[in-house]
Design goal:
The chain is mostly beta strands and 782 residues long. The longest helix is centred in the first third of the chain and has 13 residues.
Length: 782
């Protein structure tokens, strides 16, 4: 793997993390076990799900908080943000771009779109900054105080594009005392995971916090080709992220937090594995090997991102004025061999494989420039009276450029030379603003109500040009001129909830909320759209979607504070649902609207600390989703085998066929009644931590497990493009004191091998979960 990160080399990254560790006496973030356990049992979990600090038991929202110890465990071995998948109820995270471009799903709602302008219904909020573009959503998770997952529409306080929910990250902020931590692990595939932070109180009014994360891994996957095997060719990466925070408090009433962040990533893009499914059979076949792949195309990935932000809080006594200003800039490129194999079946049999490769397919997607600016101004009441409120204004501006290129290593069947044959350039300008207000009133000592409303205004201008290299005059299609689209909408979103304190230890709540996702445009027109009646230029537009969600639940503390049990049930209707149809005849995707998607289910979180040495947690969710649109169709799998299976698709379609497959044309099927893609009915996770005092510290054992049930990869259903289940677990055994810690760990302990997605236009291509990783970790704090 090429290790050419433009900002720091691997040695510089390690030196920087080590420098942070030894620059000053350091102390770690609060011990997670101490945060959750005290003499009475479980402690209080403070969340900011309603933009103010509250006990999680008092918040009328289905929310789960992930503490630092759990994050440390799942991030062992260099995991990225996808490691959060399945770690809380109703949350799935996957990617066809690896570490660059995560896709989030809450309660079954997400977006399988693989274009860089994909609109997602799950918003990421990182230190009060909205991260809209997918390449920003992969920003590494380090030096975290807490991660919160808010389920259900959050359209009042957080606004646009939150109909499914929010994943909210809150980093550790500068404080007025010296502290810090450093930890580094070494594991399988020469994996290094180093994280460090140091807090520097320069005076009574000024403090700094510097934190960083460095991750790297060697290539470990062999590329097996007829010409020979290239050992350890793929699978590695190098990822560096830094954060500098300066806190200025010139008076008791004024608090200024200035932040600068950056990320530099280089490494292997997603590995696509040709024909790792077999027609008519479930699961991965004998072609699959974690350490072997056969690909004749390019594979590399780079990303660079920078951020500057300012959070200013003025305390005027009865109210506080909060201003959050943020600017992000990023560029990225990723190229992969999308057909997942080598050669093509117009060559002799020993020159293509594994299995049938109808034609070569390589694509590079690049973001030459992404600029995102956001500004929020919010007025929040102070005090502990019966009435509390917030009102504010939010502004969003994004400029995005995308360049997509199609490669043909072998050239076309007419013997044209290999190279880039189609180029699509997109330019998208988005602007939005929102006005919002929310208030909570305590009607009695036991009953409080909350209501909020928001006005949203969105507009987007889109320009795309498709050109064709002159050496490929016959390749698939002709160039297009300039194609433009513009969309806009304005709407009202709102929420209303009530919380009733049934007893000192039990709260009941009910909530109804309306959310919104702005209209979106899909213009990745390298190929014709995968439809029975193609659009004239291939650009597709989806109208706004709205969701109305009904939720009720209880939040309880039991056994004299030694146990916590929270349960929520929900029902939602997603109207004019934005869905993405990917693949089909060719490597394309388009956005469509479904009349309705109905979803219902429940979420449960439980914790139990029977003794001060033992902490048990368990979570469970059930999600049932159904597309309700009798006339809605999409193209099923492509790659038609006209030689062996005339007019039959390579996959076994389970949906009603509206138009049968034909040579070089996929079947069109009805998807009415289907569940959403990447929407398992069941998600479960559980952890156990046991510590035994020894000397000045303790020996501890920690294990965590995550399970998800069957998923479909696409809007249509087939025997092949699904995965029955995934169960991943980890263990951690170590010794820790107030000053240092040493531990051994294993991730994906049982070496679970599961498909997590697929590609269906060319052959039966699979993407799989991460391999088993083991290693040792050492850290200290001061």
């Amino acid at each position: 793997m090429k290790r050419t990160a433009s900002f720091f080399s691997s040695s510089a990254g390690l030196a920087l993390c080590a420098g942070l560790a030894f620059a000053t006496p350091a102390a770690a973030q609060d011990d997670a076990a101490a945060a959750y356990e005290n003499e009475q049992g479980l402690g209080t979990i403070i969340v900011t799900a309603q933009r103010r600090e509250q006990d999680i038991q008092d918040v009328p929202i289905s929310v789960t908080a992930i503490n630092d110890e759990a994050l440390q465990a799942v991030n062992s071995g260099g995991q990225d943000i996808r490691a959060l998948s399945g770690r809380v109820p109703s949350l799935i995270v996957e990617s066809s771009f690896g570490r660059v471009f995560p896709r989030f799903y809450i309660r079954g709602l997400g977006n399988t779109d693989f274009d860089y302008n994909a609109s997602q219904p799950v918003s990421l909020v990182y230190d009060d900054q909205v991260l809209e573009n997918p390449i920003l959503k992969g920003f590494p998770v380090f030096d975290m105080q807490q991660v919160e997952v808010l389920r259900g529409p959050q359209g009042t306080l957080f606004g646009r594009n939150t109909p499914a929910g929010i994943v909210k990250f809150d980093s550790v902020k500068p404080s007025d005392f010296a502290e810090g931590f450093a930890r580094v692990s070494y594991g399988r595939f020469n994996n290094i995971n180093a994280e460090a932070a140091v807090n520097l109180p320069a005076s009574d009014v000024f403090s700094l916090r510097i934190s960083g994360l460095y991750q790297r891994q060697d290539d470990y996957v062999d590329n097996v080709l007829p010409s020979g095997t290239e050992e350890d060719a793929l699978g590695g990466y190098e990822d560096l992220a830094l954060r500098l925070q300066a806190r200025i408090q010139p008076t008791d009433a004024l608090d200024i937090l200035l932040t600068g962040q950056l990320r530099e990533l280089t490494g292997t893009a997603r590995l696509f594995r040709a024909n790792n499914f077999t027609r008519g059979e479930e699961g991965l076949n004998e072609n699959f090997s974690r350490k072997r792949i056969s690909t004749d195309g390019q594979n590399d990935q780079e990303l660079s991102a920078q951020n500057l932000s300012a959070r200013i809080t003025w305390d005027f006594g009865p109210v506080s004025l909060i201003s959050v200003t943020s600017f992000w800039n990023a560029d990225s490129t990723s190229v992969g061999d999308v057909d997942g194999g080598f050669g093509a079946n117009f060559l002799p049999p020993n020159l293509y494989g594994p299995g049938e490769i109808p034609f070569t397919a390589e694509t590079r997607d690049t973001v030459p420039d992404l600029d995102q600016f956001t500004q929020e101004i919010r007025l929040a009441s102070n005090g502990d009276g019966p009435l509390s409120y917030q009102v504010g204004f939010f502004y969003f501006d994004e400029s995005l450029q995308i360049l997509s290129e199609n490669y043909s290593t072998l050239g076309d069947p007419l013997n044209a030379p290999g190279g880039v044959n189609i180029v699509v350039a997109q330019d998208q300008q988005s602007e939005a603003f929102g006005l919002f207000g929310s208030l909570t009133y305590e009607l009695t000592d036991q009953l409080s109500v909350t209501g909020g409303i928001r006005y949203n205004d969105d507009k987007r201008d889109f320009v795309v040009v498709r050109s064709q290299d002159t050496q490929f005059p016959t390749f698939l299609q002709n160039p297009l001129g300039t194609v433009t689209r513009s969309v806009s909408d304005d709407t009202i979103t709102w929420d209303a909830s009530a919380t009733f304190e049934a007893s000192e230890d039990v709260n009941l709540y009910a909530r109804v909320a309306r959310g919104y996702r702005a209209p979106s445009i899909q213009g990745r027109i390298l190929f014709p759209p995968a439809t029975a009646t193609p659009l004239e230029d291939g650009v597709s537009v989806a109208d706004s979607e709205t969701i109305t969600s009904y939720e009720a639940g209880l939040k309880s503390t039991l056994l004299d504070g030694k146990a916590r049990f929270n349960l929520s049930t929900f029902l939602y209707d997603l109207n004019n649902a934005q869905l993405t149809a990917v693949g089909g005849d060719v490597n394309a995707n388009r956005v469509i609207n479904a009349n309705n998607v109905r979803g219902y289910g429940f979420e449960m979180d439980a914790e139990f600390a029977p003794t001060s040495e033992l902490l048990l947690t368990a979570s469970l969710s059930y999600n049932n989703t159904e597309i309700q649109d009798e006339g809605l169709t999409t193209a099923a799998c492509g790659g038609v085998r006209v030689d062996t299976f005339p007019n039959v698709s390579l996959c076994t379609i389970l949906d009603p066929i509206v138009t049968p497959a034909a040579p070089f044309s996929a079947a069109i099927v009805s998807i009415d009644g289907n569940s959403l893609p990447q929407a398992p009915k069941w998600i479960a996770n559980w952890t156990a931590r046991y510590g035994v005092p020894m000397g000045d510290g303790e020996v501890y054992f920690f294990t965590d497990w995550a399970y998800r049930s069957k998923i479909n990869f696409f809007l249509y259903e087939s025997v092949e493009f699904q995965d029955r289940k995934l169960l991943e677990g980890g263990i951690r055994l170590g010794y820790k004191t107030d000053s240092y810690e040493i531990a051994g760990f294993v991730r994906n302990l049982t070496n679970d091998t599961s498909a997590v997605s697929g590609i269906d236009f060319n052959n039966l291509t699979a993407m799989v979960n991460e391999p088993r990783i083991w290693g040792i970790e050492a850290g200290f704090r001061w």
